[in-house]
Specification:
The complex is a heterotrimer of chains A (98), B (416) and C (972). Chain A contains one helix and six strands. Chain A is mainly beta and 98 residues long. Chain A has a single domain, classed as 2-Layer Sandwich (Folate-binding fold), CATH 3.30.2270.10. In chain A, strand 4 and strand 5 form a beta hairpin. In chain B, the strands form four sheets. An eight-stranded mixed β-sheet of chain B has the order 5-6-4-14-15-16-13-17. Chain B has a six-stranded mixed β-sheet with strand order 8-2-1-12-19-18. The relative contact order of chain B is 0.19. In chain B, helix 2 runs parallel beside helix 7 and helix 3 crosses helix 10. Chain B folds into two domains: 216 residues, FAD/NAD(P)-binding domain (3-Layer(bba) Sandwich); 150 residues, D-Amino Acid Oxidase, Chain A, domain 2. With 972 residues, chain C is an alpha+beta fold. Chain C folds into seven domains: 114 residues, Ubiquitin-like (UB roll) (Roll), CATH 3.10.20.440; 183 residues, FAD/NAD(P)-binding domain, CATH 3.50.50.60; 117 residues, FAD/NAD(P)-binding domain (3-Layer(bba) Sandwich); 57 residues; 146 residues, Probable tRNA modification gtpase trme, domain 1 (Gyrase A, domain 2); 89 residues, Alpha-Beta Plaits; 139 residues, Gyrase A, domain 2 (2-Layer Sandwich), CATH 3.30.1360.120. In chain C, strand 5 and strand 6 form a beta hairpin. The longest helix of chain C has 14 residues. The chains are: A mainly beta (98), B alpha/beta (416), C alpha+beta (972). At the B-C interface, helix 1, helix 5, helix 7, helix 9 and strand 17 of B face strand 6, helix 3, helix 11, helix 12 and strand 31 of C. Strand 17 of chain B pairs antiparallel with strand 31 of chain C, so a sheet runs across the interface.
Chain lengths: 98, 416, 972
């Protein structure tokens, strides 16, 4: 069971959270200027790396805040937790990891 | 060598000394007409149909570990074609029909056991959806029966049918021809039959990159056992499709998740069908060996680790104990997990990739096992003719641009 | 009643508490502190089980979770438990057990015929036959023959619990290394949990001798346990097996609490499942001895040498009178010495090694025990119990040794299951001839025998170091030296030599798998079923892969192991549920007015909340109630509990901007005090919810969501706000459960509301349809919306949930003269259906866009909103798309929901749409229905054919709105 450090509430079990998938996705727009292919990629395409993944999580059964997590999809190790408005930490930054 | 009761008898008398290898272990040749990446059910079936249907025998199946070691050997072995949309129903029904003849086709007993599958309806609304589903299935040429609560109680006596049950049972949808098969046998059967037709099955051979020609088309692969050339390459690596795509320089609408599965200690027969409760997402069957084979939901974060965590385990197994109250004392023997390709519309992606010469068979989500024969048929057709198989046309990568998604759960209102 | 194999003294049993029990229909005695296995051995019961495939007679092999033969059906009726290992069943008075998988009994088992046919039933034979004419012909017989124990037929009457715990250090195992670790860690004040699967703590200290810090090992254990027990920061859990090692140092444990003892206090659960989050973990789970692989190694009376020592010391049970010890290592010599000391005769020690350390050899030879160096047991005899063994001497000659016990030892495997589950990597240690932990991934440390350490002193030192305490480690002052071993994976001799006893996998089966190309360890496992039995290969895996390595010429390290999986020991499914049965499986939500609905005779059903479906009166059917309630609304006034409706306050300078983006309709143009209906879409353009939005103030909106969407839509707004519009100054507050909703609907709704007393004008000009008032109703603060789902004049009265009953009671009291009638969901649905109003989730599914339900105008809206770009895709404008229409059935019978319209003939028959909602309308005196039909909008008036469950029906496509299409009643 993952233990995730919510930036507001501290370390909590995974059952309190919901993973919202890949983070830092740019929504294309305005709609009239976006072609079908670009829109289709926005809706469906994923980086889906084996390894470091930047994803957003919601502390659903807690403070209801969204935040970003840098997590290894192969080991499930969490490298960093950071706010929605923050830039992704460079690989090598060791945040509050478990 | 042909398998039969007679050979089993003769070999028994002869101390089992005369059995031949089920497949060879060749070293890779420098080039092939077709390379298939992934020695699971889909890859091996593709190789078999390439050789059998299209006479293309200079084929290599490259497997990074041991054949059948991915989702082919980690699923809960359910086979069904109870789909809502015509495109899905036709494809899965084709697969089910191939399964019906597969043991004889491959001369390998895959133990396809058509014990039926029941999807429960837990509310009057579920009943309405089940009727809509049943109607669609019949119009799609698939067998469907709506069962009354009484019929369900008779078929599944261990199910809690009381009105006080947290999820009472108002009926259920039965597909009689659905069932289970021995998953490893499907892999081994295709491997043995493909090998007999001349296909090279190369285990412990991991693809590490693609070789590209001046026009960008593939001309071969780099592997842990050296480069191998081919101008037609099929990819059937469920769970790891995105990694192969990354090597070839494109991205897929796929996220990898861990799907857990469970088996109990062996019991004398208590369950004679595959049963699904949409309310809890839990499905269960009993293997011929006697273990209850149980599946449920995904661990809901991207993962390439073939493991799972306790919240899902408790949800799934807790629901079994609650919905089947006499199973509380039955014990979990083993848990495992596979990595599945999850696509936004939960339908597969079959056919051309953005890279010329490279073709895809991926995105089967949690349901790839039942599609092994048809997946192999469609990818073989694509590799042999360079045109999509008729059944595969709706499942191209294009649909994410046109919006012509095929979302079974969304379309039928019933979770699959 | 005597226990012929019980020694006069010794063992951690209470001889003052004799217990009687029944096994296979015969009565026996044992003592408190016994396991079923020790009690059976004390009584000289040798034959305790039958194997899975060949039904071969089997005896007790081990003493813990490694036991592969003695599987029991414990108890009867609803409390029967299948497949329990005799070595893990604590004996209690009146215990009743039977061997699994044999009929009529374990002594005479009809299935034993399989053993006669075993030459034809080699590994994987079933893949090669049973294909003609069809697998189904054979499958039934095979299914009935397979399986082990029987599941009870009745519901499990016992209770299970789940508990969470946190600690600084979790110590797994209470042997020398575990106790040393727990002591060291606890001494520094760290919170320690010490888990031991046995009911007695101390592990090997209880049965394998030695001296620590000048004390006998078991005395030292007593003192260490007493000291730990007195510390408030230590929790000691006996009977607790650690079963799983998950991510981020989360572990699962199963505690056997009641022990299936009927005398246990009734409030005790049967099992308690623990989930522990540990700061760090000390894995001191010990090691399990391996059998030797030789012909006839499965006969009852062939045991692990460690088990023989264990039963002697722990239970005062000598497992035979005359023993042969068969070994490839020094450790088994201790069994010879102990057996001899307990008055047994050791016929010989048969050692596969030609060179035995002289001191080790002397340790038995000085006792007069015969030592055969370089020798092997090559056969055993005895129908249902061991009678003698054949030994091949170093010189090639053979001799027979009469014996009733063969104690074998092929070395030991560290218990690396949990380490492997944690993600750690294993390495093969040639000196140890076993896999041991090599590379750690999580915050755990393996110690003692689990780390492959071979002496007591090393165990204590490694445990102490892992505990990270102060002071010096305890020292073994009189311990055995490290036992030397020479690998011996298989005795080369003819006959069936078993590797996996329970699943009947022999060394020859491994050879067959190798010949047939099933050489990878996973193929070997799956083809032969090796290691897949209920012991999960605890005694068989390493032997098997070493034999395979020998056949393929690969090293053992290269051959590798299969992956270790949760759970380390089997866990009852009930323990996963804990108390989550019935209503606690998924908690039900109850309305503030629940008791009032029940008092009115409502049928309460689960719609996410428990809600009244209908209020049938005495003698009335549900359908009759629905019809009466619906008529009451059309003619008088109905009262409806709409409390689950989603209510979300959206407030702040950017509230209108956010809502313009979230809704497919513009909300920023809404006037204060007005209400507007809107659809919400996802990015695919699919309708995910609908509802009314009220503007309470310039910067203040009340967003209404469907009952099913209440939580989802609040989360949806937050996600967009927090993840996309981080610069918006908006607060989203879900208030669904803060406010309850009582709706008055019908021609007399206004009169009744007026009579109840409203602090604002109610006339159609001052308070028209689609507007909002805030004030007092019946003296209660209220937010009232004039919106209607029935087509009649309606007031949705929102009051603080704590005052709902007060409002309801006032209205019910005053409503009598207007014929006020409580309305259930059934009638509510019927009323909106007559009106042609959409019900999200019934008339729409996960693919329905606004363009399917006649909202094509959203495409003309300026600016961006969720899902807009998807709606611009060509396929959504396809004239043949599904469109929302009404259907008029022929005759009075309503169309069945889910029925398909059918077009085409023969194989081209296809769905042309389907019925989404349907009911019998009392207003129209016939069935009315809504449907999604391909190109439906352009087909009004067309007669169509439908099919449902084999029935054929006919209907006519119509406009969705049938009742009061002009809306006169609505606006009145």
């Amino acid at each position: 069971m993952l233990q995730i450090s919510c930036p507001w509430c501290g370390p909590r079990d995974e059952i309190e959270f919901r993973c919202g998938g890949q983070s830092h996705v740019i929504r294309p727009g305005p709609p009239e200027e976006v072609d079908d292919a670009t829109w289709g990629r926005y809706l469906s395409e994923k980086i889906n790396p084996r390894g470091d993944h930047l994803e957003r999580w919601l502390h659903a059964a807690g403070c209801r805040r969204w935040f970003n997590v840098a997590r290894d999809t192969a080991t499930h190790r969490i490298r960093a937790v950071y706010h929605m408005v923050e830039a992704a930490p460079a690989i090598g930054d060791e945040g509050s990891a478990r | 060598m042909r398998y039969s009761a007679w050979t089993v008898f003769r070999q028994g008398l002869g101390g089992q000394r005369g059995w031949k290898p089920a497949w060879r272990s060749p070293d890779p040749k420098p080039d092939y007409e077709v390379i298939i990446i992934g020695g699971g059910g889909h890859g091996l079936a593709t190789a078999y149909y390439l050789a059998k249907t299209y006479g293309i025998r200079r084929v290599a199946v490259l497997e990074k570990g041991w054949i059948g070691g991915g989702n082919s050997g980690r699923n809960t072995t359910a086979i069904r074609s109870n789909y809502y949309y015509r495109a899905s129903a036709r494809m899965y029904e084709h697969s089910l029909k191939l399964y019906e003849g597969l043991s004889k086709e491959l001369n390998y007993n895959v133990m396809f056991s058509q014990r039926g599958m029941i999807s429960l309806a837990h509310s009057p609304h579920d009943v309405e959806l089940a009727h809509r589903q049943a109607g669609a299935m019949r119009l799609n040429g698939v067998d469907a029966d709506f069962l009354s609560p009484g019929e369900i109680a008779r078929r599944v006596p261990i199910l809690d049918m009381s009105p006080e049950a947290r999820f009472p049972v108002f009926g259920g949808l039965l597909q009689k021809r659905a069932g289970t098969a021995r998953h490893d046998a499907v892999v081994w059967g295709y491997a043995r039959a493909a090998d007999a037709l001349g296909v090279d099955i190369i285990q412990n051979c991991e693809v590490t990159g693609f070789r590209r020609g001046a026009d960008g088309a593939v001309i071969g692969v780099e592997t842990s056992r050296g480069p191998i050339a081919a101008t037609r390459i099929g990819v059937a690596v469920a769970g790891h499709s995105s990694r192969l795509a990354e090597m070839a320089g494109f991205r897929l609408p796929i996220t990898s998740y861990a799907l857990q599965a469970f088996v109990s200690e062996p019991l004398k027969p208590v369950l004679d069908t595959v049963i699904l409760s949409p309310a809890t997402g839990v499905y269960m069957s009993q293997s011929d060996k006697g273990g209850l084979v149980i599946g449920g939901g995904l661990d809901l974060y991207p993962s390439y680790a073939q493991r799972g965590n306790m919240p899902v385990i408790r949800n799934v197994l807790g629901a079994v104990a609650a919905q089947y109250p006499s199973l509380g004392r039955v014990r979990l023997l083993r848990q495992w997990a596979g990595i599945v390709d999850v696509v936004p519309d939960s339908s597969p992606i079959i056919g051309a990739s953005p890279v010329p010469g490279l073709f895809l068979d991926c995105g089967w989500g949690t349901g790839g096992f039942k599609a092994i024969p048809v997946g192999g048929t469609m990818l073989a057709h694509q590799l042999a003719t360079l045109t999509p198989h008729e059944l595969a046309e709706p499942f191209s990568l294009e649909r994410f641009t046109t919006g012509a998604l095929i979302d079974e759960a969304a379309g039928s209102g019933i979770a699959h | 009643m005597s226990q012929p194999f019980r020694l006069a003294a010794g063992g951690l049993i209470d001889r003052g508490r004799p217990l009687s029990f029944r096994f296979e229909g015969r009565d026996y005695r044992g003592y408190a502190g016994d396991t079923l296995a020790s009690a059976l051995l004390a009584n000289g019961v040798r034959l305790v089980g039958r194997s899975f495939k060949y039904h071969r007679p089997r005896g007790i092999l081990g003493f813990g979770p490694e036991e592969s033969n003695a599987l029991m059906q414990l108890g009867t009726g609803a409390r029967a438990a299948p497949n329990l290992r005799a070595t893990e069943i604590r004996l209690h008075d009146g215990l009743e057990a039977k061997a699994v998988n044999c009929w009529p009994n374990v002594r005479f088992d009809v299935g034993g015929v399989n053993n006669l046919l075993s030459r034809f039933l080699a590994a994987g034979f079933y893949y090669k036959t049973f294909m003609w004419p069809h697998w189904h012909v054979y499958e039934g017989v095979i299914r009935r023959a397979a399986g082990l124990g029987k599941a009870p037929k009745a519901a499990d009457p016992d209770r299970y619990e789940n508990r969470f715990a946190h600690c600084d250090v979790l110590v797994v195992g209470s042997g020398p290394a575990g106790l040393a670790a727990a002591r060291a860690a606890a001494g520094t004040g760290q919170r320690v949990i010490l888990a031991e699967q046995d009911h007695v703590l101390g592990g090997r200290l209880r049965w394998d001798g030695g001296e620590i810090d000048g004390l006998a090992a078991d005395r030292w254990a007593d003192e260490a346990i007493a000291a730990l027990g007195a510390m408030p920061n230590v929790r000691i859990l006996p009977n607790t097996a650690v079963t799983g090692y998950f991510d981020h140092d989360a572990l699962a444990m199963i505690e056997a609490v009641s022990g299936d003892d009927p005398a246990a206090p009734a409030q005790l659960p049967r099992y308690r499942q623990w989930q522990v989050r540990a700061g760090r973990v000390v894995l001191a789970a010990g090691a399990i001895e391996r059998p030797l692989v030789f012909p006839g190694n499965d006969r009852p009376g062939v045991m692990l040498a460690s088990a023989v020592r264990h039963y002697l010391a722990r239970y005062g049970v000598r497992a035979g009178n005359r023993a042969v010890i068969f070994t490839n290592n020094d450790e088994a010599y201790r069994t010879a010495i102990a057996f001899h000391a307990a008055g047994g005769t050791v016929a010989a020690v048969v050692d596969t090694r030609a060179d035995v350390d002289p001191a080790v050899a002397a340790s038995v030879e000085t006792l007069g025990i015969r030592l055969l160096r370089g020798a092997s047991v090559v056969a055993t005899r005895g129908a249902k119990a061991l009678r003698d063994v054949a030994v091949r001497r170093a010189d090639g000659g053979t001799l027979r040794l009469a014996c009733d016990l063969l104690a074998m030892s092929g070395g030991s495997n560290p218990n690396v299951g949990l380490f492997s589950q944690s993600g750690g990597r294993l390495a093969f240690d040639e000196q140890l001839t076993a896999f041991r932990p090599a590379q750690s991934v999580q915050n755990e440390r393996s110690v003692g025998a689990a780390a492959g350490l071979r002496t007591l002193d090393e165990a204590l030192a490694s445990g102490h170091a892992a505990g990270a305490g102060d002071g010096a480690a305890p020292r073994a002052t009189d311990a055995h030296p490290a036992a030397e071993i020479t690998a011996c994976w298989r005795i080369d001799a003819p006959g069936k030599a078993f590797v996996d006893m329970q699943n009947d996998v022999s060394a020859d089966d491994i050879g067959l798998a190798a010949r047939e190309s099933y050489r990878s360890v996973e193929h070997l496992k799956r083809y032969t079923t090796l290691g897949m039995a209920s012991d999960q290969g605890k005694t068989s895996n390493v032997n098997a892969l070493a034999i395979m390595a020998g056949l393929t010429g690969q090293g053992i390290a290269e051959t590798g192991t299969t992956r270790f999986r949760f759970p380390f020991v089997p866990v009852a499914l009930g323990a996963f549920a804990g108390r989550a049965h019935g209503e606690l499986l998924r908690p039900l939500r109850r309305l503030a007015l629940h008791d009032r609905h029940v008092a009115l005779g409502a049928i309460m059903e689960d719609y996410g909340w428990l809600r009244p479906s209908a209020y049938p009166r005495a003698g009335e059917t549900r359908f009759e109630a629905e019809q009466r309630e619906a008529r009451a609304v059309r003619d008088g006034v109905g009262i409806f509990d709409g409390s689950p409706l989603g209510k979300i306050e959206v407030r702040g300078p950017d509230a209108a901007r956010l809502l313009d983006f979230i809704y497919a309709s513009t909300m920023s143009t809404l006037k204060v005090g007005k209400v507007r209906y809107g659809l919400m879409l996802n990015e695919l353009g699919v309708v995910i919810d609908d509802g009314v939005c009220a503007r309470l103030g310039e910067d203040h909106f009340l967003v209404g969501a469907s009952s099913a969407g209440a939580d989802r839509i609040a989360a949806w707004l937050e996600e967009w706000l927090q993840c996309e519009f981080v610069d918006h100054d908006v607060l989203v507050a879900p208030v669904t459960t803060s406010w309850s909703v009582v709706t008055l609907t019908g021609p007399h709704a206004r009169d009744l509301l007026a009579e109840a007393g409203a602090s604002f004008p109610l006339g159609p000009e001052a308070f028209p349809h689609m507007s909002f008032q805030e004030g007092m109703v019946a003296g209660i603060e209220a937010r009232v919306m004039r919106v209607s789902y029935t087509g009649e004049t309606s007031y949705e009265i929102n009051v603080p949930t704590g005052r709902t009953a007060e409002l309801w009671d006032v209205l019910m009291r005053l409503g009598g003269r207007y014929g006020l009638t409580p309305i259930g969901i059934d009638a509510w649905n019927l009323l909106r259906l007559e009106k042609g109003y959409l019900h999200i989730g019934a008339d729409t599914d996960g693919t329905t866009t606004p363009l399917n339900i006649g909202w094509d105008h959203v495409l003309r809206r300026k600016g961006d909103f969720v899902g807009k770009r998807s709606l611009m895709l060509a396929l959504h404008r396809d004239p043949a798309r599904l469109q929302f229409v009404g259907l008029r059935a022929e005759g009075t019978e309503p169309l069945p929901i889910g029925a398909h319209l059918v077009r085409g003939k023969g194989a081209d028959r296809a769905s042309d749409g389907f019925v989404t909602s349907s009911a019998y309308s009392p207003v129209f005196g016939r069935g009315v229905a809504l449907a999604l039909v391909h190109g439906g909008t352009g087909r009004i008036g067309e007669t169509v054919a439908l099919e449902h469950d084999g029935r054929r029906l006919t209907a006519t496509i119509a406009q969705p709105t049938l009742y009061d299409p002009e809306g006169a009643r609505l606006n009145g």
